[in-house]
Amino acid sequence: MGGNKYFFPMVVMSILFFMVGFITTMNNSLINFLSSSKWMLSFTEKQLINTSFFGAYLFSVPLSFLLHKLGYKSSAVLSLFIITLGFVMVFPSVSIGYWAFLCSMFVVAVGIALLQIVLNPYVLALGDECKAASRLNLTGFFNSLATVIAPLFVSFFISTDNPIAGASDIMERPDPQNVRIPFLFIAGIAFMLGFILFRLKLPEIADNTNDDDTSKNSPYKYPYLIFGSIAIFMYMGIEVGIPSFLPDWMKSQGINSINIMGIDLNSTTILSIYWGGLMVGRLIGAIVLQNISARVATTFCSSLAVVLLLSALSAGGKISLLLLALCGFCNSILWGNIFNLSTEGLGRHTKLASGIVCTFAIGGALLPPLMGYIQQIFGAGDLFAGTRMALSCLLVFYSYIILFALILSKVGKTIH
After folding, report:
1. Helix (H), strand (E) at residue 289
2. Could you give the CA distance from residue 387 to residue 120 in angstroms, rounded to a whole number?
3. Which is nearest to 138 in space by CA: 14, 4, 273, 295?
4. d(Cα 7, Cα 312) in Å, to the nearest integer?
5. Which single residue of 162, 236, 247, 410 could bond 363 by disulfide (Cβ 3.0 to 4.6 Å)?
């Protein structure tokens, strides 16, 4: 397949990946702001922001059937209009209360889940299968670019009222209604993208029934797909867990900000280092993965992340914040590589397999609250020990991904 033939579709997919990354990271970056707002959320309650968002991925399999019926382009257009609806709903719901706000963000997340199901297999199909992981990491670069910008967006346009440390008076806390105007702006952008995409002509990728092994009548009969889906579950706990608990790790050590090259980074803006690591790593991965297998790269990056995490938990202090943030670089290629290893060789089952894999992104909804529950056992009086124990859970998640890359990704696969 000629590279020029798919240049324009890759540009469009990159823009949509940017949208997914921006909204997903913005949602996560709201945790610190909303927990210190007039809603006065507990450790467990504030992690429900992730639960409501990533919980939408439970509908990934039904959404994959919708993708099968509508095709890639129509499904992408529909997803953008659903996202628009969700952000518009935030305007009245945030005045009602926290639970109504979560319901609105769940609608946004349904649109993001459908868009995610569309983007991953579409990009994998746009060219040589041997370079599929490289393409996914290239579009992932734009996803990560958005994740760097999103925390800054939250810091400058939403979290403008600095919370007063230990404020007991609810009137001294930031107003959660600060999200309304920025969210309406994002709704307008999503609507315009949906309208433009509706008017564009994109190639519809046909299912390839001549792939290596599509003799099985159900994708569930491929063990490596199931193992890979579990790896995605673990990965989402990592990707969401680190930025969710990094502010508490900072607070537990009495650190208000750190200065890097003359720039003071607070608990929100420091997340840009984490997401920036993902951005740089995916750009490098797009080049390196043309010559190195996804299996080798995944094993190496996961192992390096374990070393960084252990060092951070042992060292403490400002250096530990940087070590945790640098885990973002190691995480950069994991989603794309795991997705590729989980779905390669599935042919006509690829669309449904994409839904199955994306369903397990529910890990971003379930694992952070579990970590928050572990943190809360220690209570606010020992925030350091609680947060360290919560972050230690990431070692288990990384270990499974290493196991998948080395062994489980080969189980039941006819190509290696």
Report:
1. none
2. 33
3. 14
4. 41
5. 236
Contact call for residues 54 and 365 (beta carbons, < 8 A): yes
Distance CA 370, CA 355 (A): 24
pLDDT digits (tens, 9 = 90+) for 73-116: 899 999 999 999 999 999 999 999 999 999 999 999 999 999 98
Place of tokens 């370079």: 131
Q: Tell me the pLDDT tens digit for each residue of 350-384.
A: 778 888 898 898 898 889 889 988 988 887 678 88
Query: How many angstroms separate the CA atoms of 317 and 256, rounded?
Result: 12
Distance CA 255, CA 242 (A): 17
**Are residues 270 and 154 in contact, defined by beta-carbon separation less than 8 angstroms?**
no
Fill in the amino acid letter for 193. L
Whether 94 and 180 have beta carbons less than 8 Å apart is answered as yes
At 137, list the tokens: 């990491």
Residue 380 tokens, joined: 């606010």
What value, to the nearest 5°, has the Cα angle with vertex 174 and ends 169 and 175?
A: 105
> Rounded to a whole number, what is the largest CA-CA distance in the chain?
66
DSSP assignment of 102-117? HHHHHHHHHHHHHHHH
Q: Which two tokens stand for residue 239?
A: 């990707």
Query: At residue 197, what is the residue type?
Result: L
Residue indicated by tokens 């290239």: 138
Of residues 57, 105, 52, 64, the one with CA closest to residue 360: 57
Confidence of residue 413 (pLDDT cuts 50, 70, 90): confident
Rounded-to-integer distance, Cα 203 and Cα 282, Å: 25
Closest listed residue to residue 119, CA positions, set 105, 106, 146, 138:
138
Rounded Cα distance, 141 and 77, in Å: 22
Q: Which of 13-17, 208-212, 310-314 has the lowest mean pLDDT?
A: 208-212
Three-state SS string over 257-277 comes to CEEECCEEECCCCCHHHHHHH
- ∠ CA(94), CA(52), CA(38), 5° rounding? 35
Query: What are the backbone angles phi and psi of residue 3, rounded to the nearest 5°?
Result: -65, -40
Summary mean pLDDT of the chain: 85
